[in-house]
Write a structure and sequence with these properties.
alpha/beta; Rossmann fold; TIM Barrel; 3 domains; seven-stranded mixed β-sheet; six-stranded parallel β-sheet; 18 helices; 22 strands; 33% helix
């Protein structure tokens, strides 16, 4: 009997500084691909496991150990997003060194033919753009038989380059692609959160989004199917169901779906979330959304300027939009209203006007979003035409336009803070003190007084290094060496370098530590987080924890905290 090859599906999480709460990384792609493999019959030749949720906390070294020593896959299927692509490629590269025969597949929203670095190091054996359910079994068949798929949406590595096929693949109807409602892997995560699709494709053609450019037309599932799926998820422990359609109310059976969810959720024990077009919301829709227990709705407003909206392919009836927003707000639904910055033809006056309007919406949270030049989007391909400057690495944030200088963009951030009082990422409460509420759970002690920095202990991707000792400034080269080693070995880990000095240390020590951190390329979180008043470091931060029983001058404590607050967030 043929021995089945083992596939490991990996989807690395978004890692941030937030203390408390639950992380969220539902591996929906792995579930869909596993079902597609089973439906095609390729499961007679392959078996699949999905990297478990607890591995989301591992640093790169321990994650590689888990993959190599526990899973030992022959194929790895990786799902790539802007927040995980750099880390995923580094992890896969390390796995490949220890398992040279492993074959690597890459897919996900981040993949596009014009990607700036995915193809550069020729790591993946095959790369797929767009939906994976139809092409994944064909890729597995190709791995098994040695015959390439020849599909337009799949690139195969050939030496030091990639070769795309020429054949189209039928996208198929969503109902036929999704796992059946009772599929054994359709379960909420450990926090009771579940995702659900009711449509595939998007009726909008937004230039900043790649979703609508990977499928022409929209496919929907019927209301009875939506209700059946939701009912099973609730029986399996779902407390919150998030509809991940780009425009939930584009489904022709939208009203019937809401009525069905209302009947299913009569006790209102489950909350629902969706993103929709506010300008299409009627009085009946708003009433039914509330009755079904949609407690949060996201509405992408983006801009109030008709010229800007036309440029990004999102013409909007402003009057109808305002009416839809008001109807939902009056029904007690919390609204997340998106306002964007850095769009083509956008001026500061539009940003100010949009923020002022959004902040006046009752029961609303304003989400201020920077425009991203995402690979595969129309906006990225036309960035020179529009005069858009942006980051070369993820998340590809627009940093200036013809009408908005970098100083204007910074001022826009200040406006957003003024109108929304919102905070990016998780700013530290304090950087110097006897109690530091922002420290990570895993805290590793390094005593510089009698220990030359060696291997750094710990296994999580969020770690606090507690650097102790007397005369730390005199031993600063050991302190700097510890920082250097930590970031070099684990560049994707969020590091907190926590000095616990026996006495007051010169501020020059902190300057040297900051310079050491700055020698390394910025972490994704640094590029993602935009802070008014200029760049501050987010992913690698310095803290000072004062020792019990020791006396420190208030002026010194204040000077250290002020210095670190100006450099870190």
């Amino acid at each position: 009997m043929e021995k089945r090859q083992k596939i490991l599906s990996i989807q690395l999480p978004y890692v941030d500084n937030h203390i408390g709460g639950n992380s969220e990384n539902l591996r929906l792609a792995g579930i869909y691909l596993r079902h597609a493999m089973e439906r095609s019959g390729e499961n007679h030749h392959f078996s699949m496991s999905i990297c478990p949720q607890w591995t989301d906390k591992l640093n790169d070294g321990h994650l590689v150990d888990y993959i190599v020593e526990r899973e030992r896959p022959t194929v790895i299927a990786s799902t790539l997003y802007a927040w995980n692509i750099e880390r995923t490629l580094d992890v896969l590269r390390a796995v490949k060194k220890r398992l040279p025969a492993v074959r690597i597949l890459a897919g996900g929203p981040e993949v596009a033919p014009d990607h700036p670095f995915l193809f550069r190091n020729c790591l993946p054996d095959a790369v797929a753009v767009g939906e994976g359910e139809q092409v994944f079994p064909l890729i597995l068949e190709s791995l098994r038989t040695g015959k390439r798929t020849g599909l337009k949406s799949v690139a195969w590595r050939s030496g030091r380059k990639y070769v795309w096929g020429k054949k189209n693949v039928n996208k198929g109807e969503l109902g036929a692609l999704l796992p059946p409602p009772a599929y054994r892997y359709n379960v909420p995560d450990s926090n009771g959160i579940a995702y659900m699709e009711t449509s595939r494709g998007c009726p909008l053609r937004c230039a900043f989004c790649c979703y609508n450019q990977k499928r022409h037309g929209v496919s929907f599932i019927k209301a009875h199917d939506v209700i059946a799926r939701a009912g099973i998820l609730i029986r399996r422990g779902a407390k919150e169901i998030r509809f991940i359609d780009p425009t939930f109310n584009s489904n022709p059976e939208f009203v019937n779906i809401l009525k069905g969810l209302t009947g299913l959720n009569a006790g209102r024990g489950v909350v629902f979330f969706a993103e929709l077009r506010a300008e299409k919301i009627s009085k009946e829709h708003a009433r039914l959304l509330d009755k079904a227990n949609f407690r949060e709705i996201e509405a992408g407003i983006q801009s109030r300027d008709p010229m800007v909206l036309r440029a990004i392919g999102r013409p909007t009836d402003i009057g109808a939009l305002d009416r839809g927003i008001r109807l939902m707000s009056e029904n007690g639904i919390k609204l997340t209203v998106d306002v964007m910055c850095g769009l083509p033809f956008q001026e500061l006056s539009d940003i100010r006007k949009s923020l002022r309007w959004a902040s006046g919406v009752k029961n609303a949270h304003v989400q201020f979003l920077h425009t991203l030049l995402i690979p595969g989007t129309e906006l990225r391909s036309r960035r020179k035409e529009y005069g858009l400057d942006g980051q070369s690495r993820p998340p590809y944030r627009v940093t200036a336009t013809r009408l908005l200088s970098s100083a204007d963009m910074s001022y826009a951030e200040e406006l957003a803070m003024r109108y929304t009082d919102r905070l990016m990422d998780s700013p530290a409460v304090r950087f110097a003190g006897r109690g530091l509420p922002d420290l990570f759970d895993e805290q590793v002690i390094v005593n510089i007084s009698h220990q030359i920095h060696g291997r750094i202990e710990g296994k999580s991707n969020r770690r606090a290094l507690i650097i102790k000792g007397a005369g730390l400034y005199g031993r600063r080269f050991l302190v700097l060496g510890t920082i250097r080693q930590a970031i070099k070995i684990e560049p994707h880990t969020l590091w907190q370098f926590v000095l616990e000095p026996d006495e007051e240390e010169p501020l020059d020590l902190f300057d040297a530590m900051i310079e050491e951190i700055d020698r390394f390329p910025a972490h994704f979180l640094d590029n993602m987080t935009v802070v008014p008043g200029g760049y501050r470091r987010v992913a690698r931060r310095i803290f000072v924890r004062l020792k019990a029983g020791r006396r420190y001058r208030k002026a010194w404590i204040a000077a250290v905290d002020d210095m670190l607050r100006k450099k870190f967030y």
